[in-house]
Structure formats: C-alpha cells, structure tokens
C-alpha cells in the first residue's frame, strides 16, 4: 500500500477529539480515518505527566498497528505532556493541537493581549503561554497571555447545554477576568470548547476565537502526505473506544456533525510497558 492511501490516525482521551476529526474530514475529503477514544481512562487532565505519556504511547501504538501514515494527538493534555515523547518514539509524523493554535493566536492579535481557556491540566502546563511567547520576533515577544481554566465547560457540553442560561452565567464568570484584561484573541484550548463558540462569541464580540482543532487540521494539510485522488475509502471513519457508553453515538454525532457507526471496543493498556523499550516506525 502506498503511503498516500494509508489512513490518518486520531486519538483523544474521550470524545472531544471528534471536533478535531470534524475539521480533518472537511479539509481532507479524500482521506480515511481511524479514531481512538480512550474513554475508559478519561479524563487525562487529572493524571500525572508520566501516566499521560504512558496512555498516549498506548494510543499511538494502537493506531500504528493499524498502519496509519500520521497521528493527530487530538487532546490538549496529551499534546502538552506527551507530544515530544511520541515524536521521539515513532517515525511517522505526530501532530499536536497546541503549537499551531498558539501561532495562529500570535498572528491574529492586534493589541498583544491573548486569552487562553482550557482544562486545569492544560492551563497548569503553561504550554500555550510558552508557545505563544516563543516564536521569536519582537512583536510576539511583547504578547501578554491571560490564561483561565474552565473545568465546567466539558460536562456542560456533554450534557448538550450549549446555550442554556446556566452555561451563559458560568461562561460570563469564567471570561470576566479575560475581558478585564482587554483580550482581542481567545484560544479555545480544549477540544470540547468549539461547540460553545456561538455562546462565547456573543459574550466576546470582536474577539477572534482560535479553534485548536482547526489549526491542527491545517498542519496536517500542510504536510502534503494526503491522498489527491478520490477512493472508495474517502472519509471512511473507523471508530474505536476503550469503554462503551450508550450515549457515545449521540454525543459523537453532536461532536463530529456526521452520523456515527457504533464503535468497536478495544483494550490497549498492555500495548506498551515502557516508552523507552521500542522504536516503532
């Protein structure tokens, strides 16, 4: 099989990464995809860095066993804590969701005040702030990054409360310090958050919202490893999870924006015992 005909692998700790897959499907209509949601061990955000690395290596190993040509780490926590480890371990391209979003925010701001919202783990890692301030030219060196954890957004999204009065009140409370700091750009640093974009934009008129999943999809497009000709497998999605919930298909349909087949249940926790043991390519 030629490289261009191989599928693209995507993994997340749960279903939030389906918003990343949504952008990939839209931007790469001739591709097939394999998605793995590590739903048995979600969330990664309350795990140690070493545990996140181990889980991420197991997810990536599972995808590599399915002969993917590249892997998208559709999880901010895994991108923050495990991306370097994955890139050192595998010889195929590994794309995270932080770097390109940070660069997009850096390019978008006019007043050098950038907000970042995410899970507690992502914000605590300071990954976005470090990336945004690390591009090197004078303008970017002057950026002020204002970060804010928004832990209630994930359960609200999964409940489908995308524009409820309660969600608006919570969003206004979370965003109040960022508004006070005068941000003109906001990074949605969690893959659940794009579903709240209409609500967030109504609270932040004139503020540019940066979707980390869309930025990652642009990175994949830029690799030029994708199929150029239509095939019978175009946009075929194979869905795998490590634990099955009856609500999965409904939520997956909401996140992906497409009908979703029932996922295949898999076990991955014995795939990698030590991330230094094997070079997989």
What does this protein look like?
The protein contains 12 helices and 10 strands. With 281 residues, the protein is of the alpha/beta class. The protein folds into 2 domains: 3-96 and 216-265, Rossmann fold (3-Layer(aba) Sandwich), CATH 3.40.50; 99-213, Rossmann fold, CATH 3.40.50. It has a 6-stranded parallel sheet with strand order 4-3-1-2-9-10, with helices on both faces. The chain has a 4-stranded parallel sheet with strand order 6-5-7-8, sandwiched between helices. Strand 9 (237-241), helix 12 (248-256) and strand 10 form a beta-alpha-beta unit. The relative contact order is 0.20. The model is unreliable at 274-281 (pLDDT under 50).
Features:
single chain, 281 residues, alpha/beta, Rossmann fold, four-stranded parallel β-sheet, 12 helices, 10 strands, 41% helix, disordered C terminus
Beta content comes to 15-25%
Query: How do the strands line up in the largest sheet?
Result: 4-3-1-2-9-10
Fill in the CATH topology of the largest domain. Answer: Rossmann fold
Major sheet attributes:
6 strands, parallel
Helicity level: 40-55%
Low-confidence stretches: 274-281
Name the quaternary structure.
Answer: single chain
The end-to-end distance, rounded to whole angstroms, is 15 Å
Number of E-type strands: 10
CATH C-level category of the largest domain: Alpha Beta
Summarize this, please?
The chain is α/β, with parallel strands linked by helices and 281 residues long.
Describe the protein's topology.
Blueprint: E1 8-12, H1 18-27, E2 33-37, H2 49-65, E3 70-73, H3 76-89, E4 94-95, H4 99-108, E5 113-118, H5 120-125, H6 127-132, H7 138-141, E6 144-149, H8 153-158, H9 165-180, E7 185-189, H10 197-203, E8 208-211, H11 212-222, E9 237-241, H12 248-256, E10 264-265
Parallel strand pairs: 1-2, 1-3, 2-9, 3-4, 5-6, 5-7, 7-8, 9-10
Helix pairs in contact: 1-11, 2-3, 4-11
